[in-house]
Amino acid sequence: MNQLIGVDLGGSALKLGRFSLAGELLAGLEVPTPQPSLPGAVTTAIVEAVQQLDPEHLADRVGVGHPGPSDGAGRVARIAINLPGWQEVPLADWLEPLLDRRVTLANDANCALIGEHWLGAARDRRDVVLLTLGTGVGGAVLLDGRLFTGRHGAAAEPGLIGIDPEGPPCNSGNSGSIESYCSRRGLALLSGLDPAELCRRADGGDAEALEVWRAYGRLLGIGVSSLLYVFTPELVLIGGGISAASAHFLPALWGEVEQRVQPVSREGLAIRPCSLGNGAGRLGAARLALERLASSLG
User: Fold this and answer.
1) Rounded Cα–Cα distance for residues 203 and 197 (Å)
2) Using CA atoms, how far apart are residues 29 and 50, in angstroms rounded to an integer?
3) Which residue, of 11, 165, 194, 259, has the fewest CB within 10 Å?
4) Cα–Cα distance, 128 to 116 (Å, whole number)
């Protein structure tokens, strides 16, 4: 067996890819995430999607990126604050007998950073912070070339850092977090439009849409500024579905960074969108399957 499957579990879609051992995408698939996204329904959806993607069983290892932390062994999804019922879910144990493939789990933003570090914008970089902007705001941190996940695998959740103590509630229990303002739900507080429509209008020069993106960029820039003081990375990557509008909010984000962060803490810094787009997560999940799992169920 010389192929891998990567799964990126998002709040609205499951993105899957079947890859060679070198990371070449051989086949891809995207299906809606069940609503409500209960663990059993999502497990069934992943099984059906993998079988559709690989009916000939050419891949025998599967990596799954999911919102929130996994345990250190990559077997249990500890919690997903934006998915109902996701607490201590033994997803790998559920999937393996149904798929007849080895399975490993990881935080979805960690998977995205692993994908970008393997074949994307973070190649040859040692210190990187990544934010994924979508249903929630995920994040991942690479320090000296290695993922930083903390003692129990739950570190590096920058989206849950507070930027306004009087801000709107976050599903984490915090208030005024980066996620409260910069997720899809947070963007809806600035505009009732879908992000794609808001981006389309901004592309056309609509003044109101452009101002919404500037306000969004300023809020995100406040959060990024705090992260720079902690990690002093050489690169900040912006991923997730909302990153498609990065041309409209990155200038305002940079403006906040330049105002708030001392030059010594942002020296040589680059801030840019992920080069692999929404494909980074599934690629990184496949890479983890390659690194962690033996090539058979044994």
Assistant:
1) 10
2) 9
3) 165
4) 10
State the residue for tokens 């993105």: 15
**Are the C-beta atoms of residues 257 and 221 closer than 8 Å to each other?**
yes
Alpha carbons 276 and 285: distance in angstroms, whole number: 13
Q: Alpha carbon of 79 to those of 31, 84, 150, 186, 214: distances in Å?
A: 22, 10, 16, 21, 32
Q: What is the DSSP string of 247-278?
A: HHHHHHHHHHHHHHS-GGGSTT-EEEE-TTGG
Nearest residue to 103 via CA among 111, 114, 95: 95
Per-residue pLDDT of 213-270, as tens digits, reads 999 999 999 999 999 999 999 999 999 889 999 999 999 999 999 999 999 999 999 9
User: Positive or negative CA dihedral for 66, 67, 72, 78?
Assistant: negative
Token pair for residue 90? 């033994």
Cα–Cα distances (Å) from 119 to 140, 172, 236, 245, 251, in that order, read 16, 32, 16, 22, 26
Nearest-angstrom CA–CA distance, 138 and 130: 8
Is the entire prediction scored with pTM above 0.85? yes
How do residues 80-95 score in pLDDT, each as one tens digit? 988 999 999 999 999 9
**In what side-by-side order are the strands of the sheet with 235-239?**
146-147, 137-143, 128-133, 235-239, 270-273
Let me know: does 145 contact 21? Beta carbons within 8 Å.
no
Strand order of the β-sheet with 102-107 is 25-32, 13-20, 3-9, 59-66, 102-107
End-to-end CA distance of the chain: 13
